[in-house]
């Protein structure tokens, strides 16, 4: 296996990582910012207030994005398996 092929696999893996991880992380970030703004506006400084809405939003995002995530991971595995079968 050449260095260029290894770089292609690594680059493809990083892109799949971003496609799979980014939606959930962006949802968690958005919910965290919104809750922080609400806390700042109402001067309600309860530390545990962020966790429940964030967990619910992340689980909802996982349910909605699961087909996209599984397709991205399955496609990556298929491409890697094809390279293994082809001999590099």
UniProtKB/TrEMBL annotation:
Major localization listed first in the record, in broad terms: membrane
KW Chaperone (keyword) present: no
Transmembrane segments: 14-38, 50-69
Compartment(s) of residence: Cell membrane
Family: Belongs to the FliQ/MopD/SpaQ family.
Keyword field: Cell membrane, Cell projection, Cilium, Flagellum, Membrane, Transmembrane, Transmembrane helix
GO process annotations (BP): protein secretion
Protein name per Swiss-Prot or TrEMBL: Flagellar biosynthesis protein FliQ
Record has Membrane as a keyword: yes
InterPro entries referenced in this protein's UniProt entry, alphabetically: Bac_export_3
Topology relative to the membrane: Multi-pass membrane protein
GO cellular component labels: plasma membrane
